[in-house]
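Hi R.,

Quick one: here's the N-succinyl-L,L-diaminopimelate aminotransferase sequence you asked about.
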Amino acid sequence: MNPRLDLLQPYPFEKLRALHQGVTTPAQWPAISLGIGEPKHPTPTFIRDALAAHLDGLAVYPSTAGTVELREACAQWASRRYGVPLNGQTQVLPINGSREALFAIAQTVVDASRAGATVVCPNPFYQIYEGAALLAGAQPYFAAVDAQRNFAVDWAAVPEAVWQRTQLLYVCSPGNPTGAVMPLEEWKLLFDLSDRHGFVIASDECYSEIWFGAQPPLGGLEAAWQLGRTDFRNLLFFTSLSKRSNVPGLRSGFVAGDAKLIAAFTRYRTYHGSAMGPAVQAASAVAWNDETHVEHNRALYREKFAAVLPILQPVLDVQLPDAGFYLWAATPGDDAQFSRGLLEKYNVTVLPGSYLAREQGGVNPGRGRIRMALVAPLEECVEAARRIAAYCSEPIHSQRPSP
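And here's the predicted structure, written out as tokens:
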């Protein structure tokens, strides 16, 4: 067996199941889960129809690079969304959802033979980053978010010695679980560091189309273009249809950016067997070409956040995120015990924040917080918020923590 498998920690939801073992949920409260970030809005009919209309593609071996139609649809969407021109043939590659590609890019770019090979990622973070680093033979370094700066990652606090060993940096903007969006000055800092040390930036932007302000979140490709980095050197952007179009089961997204990296990644994926099925490619192309369903989807999330926050804010330290569909709330007391108690008393599932982070320097930046995914229908989210408020109002929780 690969000995590196022993380095992998249990996934957050495995920890959650273990935490909830032995809990008897109250029969009078129907179960509501805010624990898993799985989109629950209906898949648009036109996407389902496109998938069904191309089932003859099941008889064809697909190419890793994907069809010209899909790559052009992805490139055109990036142009409309971010104002960046992409060459669909050299700078775009379809992927089977962002998760598998975010894992695979570490296997492509990390050279484990170099002493001290390091992969930097945010903390809290999406656990795929850590697993990808470890299985590629690198050491992960966790850069903590700063609660005083709207949970922005404190990249400047990463020691220079760490950057010197870094081969890959994972960025998540909008962030999971915090919803923080990176501004242009932070992108400039990371680009400058990448130029100095030669590492690749993998920008995970799968939550980019769920936002609440007047302007959509700044993306990595957009930031590079604004800063004159028109070749997107050492930058790869990862996105997905899962949240944008409510098709998590379609397993479809794309990666774009530095043409040299795209060529290397295509070569790796050809051997890995990562080609997207023709029916999925056809459905994906029509999804990227339509924005009406995305606007409707965004409106549904905005309605839920507008309804839930007034219920929670009197009893919890929680704010509207920059983007995404998570609330990142401080808990009165231990986050894991809060999660277990909430399930036991009111049959609502939330994810302890400490399960999404790693202790570094004696501090776990997720401790004392919970992640709530507002993916259920509006009525369920409101009911869950009312139960959480009731739980927080019990005498044992009446003393709110300081923000």
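The first helix runs from residue 12 to 20.

Cheers,
M.
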